[in-house]
Amino acid sequence: MRCSYYEAGRCASCTWLERPYPDQLAAKQAHAESLVAAREWLPPVASAEAGYRNKAKMVVGGTVDAPVVGVLDERGRTVDLRDCPLHTPGLRAALGVLAEFVTVAALTPYDIAARRGELKYLLVTESPDGELMVRFVCRSTEPLARLRKHLPWLRERLGRLRVASLNVQPRHAAVLEGEREELLTDDATLPMRVNGLELLLRPQGFFQTNTAVAAELYRQAGAWVDAAAPGSVWDLYCGVGGFALHAADGRRPVVGVETSAEAVAGAAETARRAGLGRVEFVVGDAAEYARAHRVPDLVVVNPPRRGIGDLAPWLETSGVRTVLYSSCNAVSLARDLAAMPSLVPVRARVLDMFPQTGHYETLVLLERAG
Q1: Separation CA 120–CA 135 (nearest Å)
Q2: Please, what are the domains in the chain?
Q3: Candidates 84, 138, 238, 328; catalytic one
Q4: Is 328 one of the catalytic residues?
Q5: Which pLDDT does position 217 carry in this prediction?
Q6: Which pairs with CB-CB distance under 8 Å and at least 24 residues apart come from 170-177?
Q7: Torsion angles phi and psi, residue 161, rounded to 5
Q8: Model-level pTM?
């Protein structure tokens, strides 16, 4: 992949950009195998080298008349990256329009040093159908009236705009978003069509960054669940329900647990629309839910980078016979597996969710020894 930002020394986020892609994939496979002693490693799942990111998380700097949309450099200055080649073509086109909209709606970019201004981030997601969700992360609701007033301008230029919202993040801290969300559109969900399912993403929900590789991840997990033929399934840290919904067959009970109420609402609606019975989604902490309910036959865990923490000792002693662990951090994955010696890694696969970087996803099938 060629990147003018990298070549000009303006952005170094893609730390593996100078490595040929086959070498990147081989290195990730070797790293995963050095940390996880699975009996069988399947061939890695490759990604498109560019244009794969379905979401843009952009800092907004500059001024109302000359906004800069991109990332912060080491000096705290905003570097314009609206044409980053990692983003889908739809996102790249949208970021240019959104930069114009900052001027049209008089959205004052937040000045970190002076602690003045309103607009901190633009969070933009594109669905497989080319529809967009745009979130304006601001310090307060002060721009709300202007956002609503000028929304028709934005709709005219972003014809595939589906969801727009203002997120309120008042803290002077490197926190991406706040708890309060003000919808600007009638639609509150962005349909992410994956493997025949319409996963519904809400403003504060989570969806994998790479849609094509996410589809492979869910397909592989679904195949392993079907082969295990469990009588019951939990999907802990379920997000919008991708694993749970791919495990649902209408016969076995499936429960998804997630702390985000927005994500749970979207997952429940997806199950309803798909006509999937015996699927339930619960707002709650994964470890607390696990300790309070009867143990299922199979558990799926897809935690944040830090891993599953004290859920690992619980899984070790729980009697659960099969675990699917999906991890974006093989180091924390290996640490968690060491805390569950009775659950043996039988099969594993690397899925390259993040080309041009050292990050990747690993899916591991664990079976209880004996």
Answers
A1: 11
A2: 4-49+206-368 (3.40.50.150), 55-188 (2.40.50.1070)
A3: 328
A4: yes
A5: 98
A6: 170/139, 170/140, 172/112, 172/115, 176/57, 176/121, 176/123, 176/137, 177/121, 177/123, 177/135, 177/137, 177/204
A7: -70, 120
A8: 0.94
